[in-house]
Amino acid sequence: MKTLVKLLIPVAATMMLSACAHHDQPPADYAQLRAAHPRSILVIPATNRSTQVDAADNFLVTLARPLAERGYYVFPTHMVKRTMEDEGLGDADMVHKGDVRRVAALFGADAVLYAEIVNWDASYAIISTTTTVTVNYELKSGLTGATLWKRTITAHYSPQASSGNPLAALIASAITAAIQRAHPNYIPLANLANLRAFSEKDQGLLAGPYDADPGSVPTRAFADQ
Amino acid sequence: MKAKYLTAFAVVVTLAGCAKPDRYNWGEYQSSLYDYYADKAGEADYVKSLDLIIADEAKGKKTPPGVYAEAGFMALSRGDSAKAIEMFGREKTLWPESTAFMDKAIANARRGKSAPVS
Question: What are the C-alpha distances in Å from B92 to residues B87, B100, B101?
Fold first, then answer.
């Protein structure tokens, strides 16, 4: 597995490189988030409406990093998951429908991040595999239950081996596609979706208290998918 | 083969031109937890990845939020409540936002229980 991850790092790098172009969208309404100015975010298990049975657990492990990098305190993912299971809150669908304030109070969290995986599909071909994910993100106040911020992101991931030699690149692409088919790696695509969700210019989360400029609007630009 | 790695390296370097470097040292946290969820046999590697992040603090790297708590939780699950209490305490000191949760976790570890909340 580790070798596989290492193999896919250059692939992910190539994919993310395309994320540096510029385009503008009208800024999001940050009034609620600004008023609540949460310091801490509790990441609870994601709900999964896709056909990939292990998508929820796999997606969960990718959420803490981009939120912490945005400047928030993020509660320990695995410890929270196990604690919720012990408390009879192991069913993500039930928890997502329940009272956010109850879950937040259990951990002393200012805000709770809800993620719903709408779909996670791969279209397979001989020399390439394109995986598409759509996720609904929603940040709710742990104090009032109000929605502070929400977004839906659709991201695509087509591993492409990088090489100066066209034939070598073709062979490498076919190998990469075969690996993806045998052991789909969810991390690069989930990372891309999360980064875009939380850090995109005028749309992502305001910077948290541990950022150099707390409360600032995100500035990172992404190319259209 | 070497050329392929060099190309990959060049891409990563180019990428660094537009991406901000990480605030924290995440090490193998994501991938080892991913592997652990896929296969329980990955538990030892997950624990090792947490210990490594913490050890790298000596090199001036910043430990991300949650990592001390995760290390404490794993220590508690193997019955090492002394290490668990120490780790929970460090999480709390570093991140005051975790105080309520860590106080409960410390109290439970003192009672020799692994469930941090009830």
Answer: 9, 9, 9
Contact status, residue A194 vs residue A154, Cβ threshold 8 Å: no
The token duo for B59 is 């090199």
- Could you give the number of structural domains in chain B? 1
CATH number of the domain within which B39 lies: 1.25.40.10
- The overall pTM is greater than 0.95: no
The Cα-based distances of A203 to A66, A152, B34 in angstroms read: 15, 11, 28
Minimum CA–CA partner of A88 in chain B = B118
Interface of A with B in 119-148 (CB under 8 A): none
Give the ipTM of the model, two decimals please.
Answer: 0.84
Q: State the fold for domain A30-199.
A: Rossmann fold (3.40.50)
Q: Walk along chain A (225 residues) and give the pLDDT tens digit of each residue.
A: 455 555 555 554 455 444 444 456 789 999 999 999 999 999 999 999 998 888 999 999 999 999 999 999 999 999 999 999 999 999 999 999 999 999 999 999 999 999 999 999 877 777 677 889 999 999 999 999 999 999 999 998 877 656 677 777 777 777 777 766 666 677 889 999 999 999 999 999 999 999 999 999 999 998 764
Tell me the shortest Cα–Cα distance from A142 to chain B, in angstroms: 13
